[in-house]
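cron nightly-structures :: item 1 of 1
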Amino acid sequence: MNRPRLLQMGVVSVLAGALVAGGALAQSPTPPGGSVQPAPTRPGMMPHHPMAPGPMPHGTMMPSGAPATPGVPTVPGQDAFGAIVEIVRILDADPQTDWSHVDLERLRQHLIDMNEVVLRAEVKTSPVPGGLLMDVIGVGRTESAIRAMLVPHATELDQMPGLAAKTEPIAGGVRLTVTARDAEDGKAVARVRGLGFIGLLTLGAHHQSHHLAMARGQTMPGHGQ
């Protein structure tokens, strides 16, 4: 390489170094005390770029709005499994739990029945004075699940204010009839019919307490399980 070329490259390197040093000094002035102050941030500006090296400050929000703190998944991936996870946590947290009576398999079988009724039962509905008649049928495990769940649930519905409910056995399942106690109350009648089979099945807060009682090995009068 000739001498003029070497001189030209040296001048360029010196100029580049001077520009970088000058920019750094202009952006980060050193106060009299000798410590470097962090660059000011505007409201809403992230103090640490997510791609910068080093850990992100605790509480920093990712673009999605979710906290950027490490953790574990919270969704169990299967509803019945999640229900049992919740029950186990309750039992573990209760010092009065008698583990010699705990029966989680009983609860698992009940949750299987719930799955059969909710997802596999065939339901034929027809309006009756004051409410709705529902023929709920299935085969195999579905049929037995219908009988195990609907009969006690009708008892629960019948104890609720404003509702009357009854069941009778039919081939392949159960006939469930639910009516408003005041057949002249148009809104109450419309509610029963609007809820339909699956909506009526959700009424009442006894499901959760029923599950806990089953897991504890307790007997619930009127329930087939």
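cron nightly-structures :: done
The first strand starts at residue 122 and ends at 128.
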